[in-house]
């Protein structure tokens, strides 16, 4: 291993890799498992479709806004670099801290756990083995990422293609073979005691859309980041929006609303079984496992790049900025995050709790980034800058993103105040860490 002085990040990723990163990181298991809960909370099929659509529109507005922020702050590091450039080093550090130290290992361990439980059921193994299967999956994905960009990007493209197969099947089967009125059933037909509200249904879909911003972390490894980064975000989110709406409509066309709610997490499996029998259900399980490994791969690609950039800025331990001389990837950052994920997966059952708490804080930083586009336009108005992408329908588009993000933050505060406070405390713990590294830099000068 050598440092950045000897080797640099390799620019060998194109638009297909960027799109696969966006789609692969977002589409995991949510679209397959959340149909019943979103329908029940929304109160009916029409409202369910509207919830998925509104969540997608908010996400698209967020993506269009971040694409301009990225054009105005053309740095690697993703959200960390954007917040740092808009609000200063402390806020930037807290953004990276909450994602790299808390969210990244927890969400990787959580995805590994879901995939491992499905694998144990698929193979007929005792669930006692699931924990170690999850550890094995984390090691596997870490190994892929240590081999180089092309290997990780190729795996992203492959898993994205695989996970699109059931999505296309569900859409086509629902459209041409479904016999249920997909927009006709109301909440009185779904359940006598509604399980939520339309607002909470939208909130659930926003979490299912989350993860697209991580593509910004690989900016310095794109062949043409000025063109490919905004295109990856915009077209990736559009593809996800159409996929989610299509799957939802397809499921609604095949199964009555009451049956979807009764089946809970198994609604999509029921559609596949009706089309292809028990074999179809097993194939679906296998595809979802592959899908989740693709999502884990996207996280493993993105978060070490953030740690690498924070280390280069003197805000994380120096060894994290070391690159492999063979594969030109931030190998030590990748290994470190993977080891933290393995510890969580092997010795605790709190990965879901940690990742859910961290998602709340990430949305706070999202909102700050959306507001940042107004700040940057004002700050740079007299500068002779070539901006490669500007948010269309400004200021309406960023305002939609701000509204959506504020809704996520506010809803979480109302529904899980203790959890939200725990999230904020986890972020505030980073303040003394920031000042430690900041003072260390001053003494070195």
TrEMBL record:
The keyword Cell membrane does not apply. It is a multi-pass membrane protein. Keywords: Membrane, Transmembrane, Transmembrane helix. The keyword Disulfide bond does not apply. It comes from the Bacteria. GO terms for molecular function: L-amino acid transmembrane transporter activity. It is found in: Membrane. This is Amino acid permease. It comes from Weissella koreensis.
């Amino acid at each position: 291993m050598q440092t950045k002085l000897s080797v640099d990040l390799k620019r060998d990723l194109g638009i297909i890799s960027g799109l696969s990163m966006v789609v692969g990181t977002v589409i995991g298991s949510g679209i397959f498992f959340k149909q019943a809960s979103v329908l029940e909370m929304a109160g009916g099929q029409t409202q369910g479709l509207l919830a998925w659509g509104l969540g997608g529109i908010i996400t698209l507005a967020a993506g269009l806004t971040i694409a301009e922020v990225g054009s105005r702050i053309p740095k690697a590091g993703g959200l960390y670099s954007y917040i740092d450039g808009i609000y200063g080093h402390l806020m930037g550090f807290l953004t990276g801290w909450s994602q790299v130290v808390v969210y990244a290992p927890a969400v990787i361990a959580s995805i590994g756990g879901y995939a491992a439980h499905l694998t144990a059921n698929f193979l007929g193994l005792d669930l006692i083995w699931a924990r170690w299967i999850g550890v094995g999956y984390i090691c596997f994905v870490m190994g892929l990422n240590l081999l180089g960009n092309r290997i990780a990007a190729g795996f992203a493209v492959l898993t994205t293609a695989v996970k699109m197969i059931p999505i296309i099947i569900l859409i086509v089967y629902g459209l041409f073979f479904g016999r249920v009125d997909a927009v006709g059933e109301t909440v009185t037909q779904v359940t006598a005691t509604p399980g939520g509200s339309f607002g909470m249904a939208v909130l659930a879909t926003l979490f299912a859309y989350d993860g697209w911003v991580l593509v910004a972390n690989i900016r310095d490894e794109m062949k043409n980041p000025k063109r490919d980064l905004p295109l990856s975000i915009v077209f990736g989110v559009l593809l996800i929006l159409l996929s989610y709406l299509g799957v939802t409509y397809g499921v609604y066309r095949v199964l009555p609303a009451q049956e979807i709610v009764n089946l809970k997490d198994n609604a999509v499996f029921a559609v596949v079984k009706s089309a292809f029998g028990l074999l179809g259900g097993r194939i679906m399980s296998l595809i979802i496992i592959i899908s989740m490994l693709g999502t884990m791969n996207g996280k493993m690609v993105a978060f070490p790049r953030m740690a690498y950039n924070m280390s280069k800025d003197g805000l994380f331990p120096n060894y994290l900025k070391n690159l492999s001389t063979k594969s030109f990837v931030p190998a030590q950052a990748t290994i470190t995050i993977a080891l933290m994920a393995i510890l969580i997966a092997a010795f605790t059952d709190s990965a879901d709790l940690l990742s859910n708490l961290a998602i709340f804080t990430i949305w706070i930083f999202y909102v700050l980034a959306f507001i940042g586009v107004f700040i940057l336009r004002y700050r740079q108005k007299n500068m002779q800058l070539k901006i490669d992408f500007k948010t269309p329908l400004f200021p309406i588009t960023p305002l939609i993103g701000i509204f959506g993000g504020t809704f996520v933050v506010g809803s979480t505060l109302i529904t899980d105040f203790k959890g939200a406070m725990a999230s904020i405390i986890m972020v505030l713990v980073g303040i003394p860490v920031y000042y430690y590294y900041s003072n260390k830099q001053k003494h070195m000068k």
